[in-house]
Amino acid sequence: MKSWWIRSQDGGTVLEVRDIPLPAPGPGQVLVKVHAASLNRGDMMAAIARHRAAEARLAGVDAAGEVHALGAGVSAFRQGERVMLRTRGAFAEYIVAEADLATPVPAHLSWEQAAAIPVAFVTAWESVVQLGKLGRGQWLLVAGVSSGVGVACMQIGRIMDARVIGVSGSAEKLARLRELGLEFGIRARASDFAERALALTEGRGVDVAVNLVGGTAFAGCQRVLTDFGRLSVVGYVDTVMKAEVDLEALHGRRHEIVGVSNSPLTAAQRAVATRGFVRDVLPAIADGRITPVIDRVFGFDEAPAAKAYAETNALLGKVILRV
User: Fold this and answer.
1) What CATH number does the domain located at 125-259 have?
2) Would you state the CATH architecture of domain 2-117+292-322?
3) Structural domain spans, the chain
4) Which of 28, 66, 113, 210 falls between 20 and 30 A from 231, CA-CA?
5) How many alpha carbons lie under 13 Å from residue 169 in its C-beta half-sphere?
6) Do residues 125 and 148 touch, judged by C-beta distance below 8 A?
């Protein structure tokens, strides 16, 4: 079967296609025939050590498709069932995944929409709910709101009746997001949004900030936090890996700062996040309150072009490969 592999080269990453044998599911696993997969920046980057791949590795970390075979002990799914899932090697015609990381696809979703969900929405749930501890009616700020995870954070905030502030450098993207339910949009780069965000909250600050931009936005994200505010650091599209921490505010206002990465999690920890997403977010996807936002769909053979497009940061929402 065909599969795409990724390796580090000249400070970035490149994709290469290979033919490999059809995998077989082990105990507790499912073999899935892939119909669509999504691109995720963490998988594509070589900016930090955990994402570097001197030796080529399987590319892609989430997908949607049909259950083709069941490993020993799997009873939650049946052959032919539509599922969406997180697993390494999703840019392939077939993939093996832990059954605990797969969820049924709501009937009204296309393959492409389903593939846009697993990593983006589970990461958003971790950032906003599990670690961000957002309460109903609280204030949420998302720096880098037009990214796949950013849009998901906004949508999760909306179903929790949060007051959501989105930050983006593009007026066009903010206008589109307002059509999708964004309450407040601030056009800004780096940390230039802080004073305007504080003005929107009448000086109170936000309860949760999600930083999908990186080091240049860190100071602004911490600046806008209220007392006991929580900051989830998820991405670094600016490639700036260091930032100054306001220790006086961290201590005096009892801020919490947490990194959100899938890399160090065990399979059991990833399953906990999947169950949280299923409990808190999937019902809103199933009943239509949340619709995944797709920017562009590429063919399976166009994976390098899809990667190049995603790296331009021109997208709003997710970039998808149709397999």
Assistant:
1) 3.90.180.10
2) Alpha-Beta Complex (3.90)
3) 2-117+292-322, 125-259
4) 113
5) 12
6) no
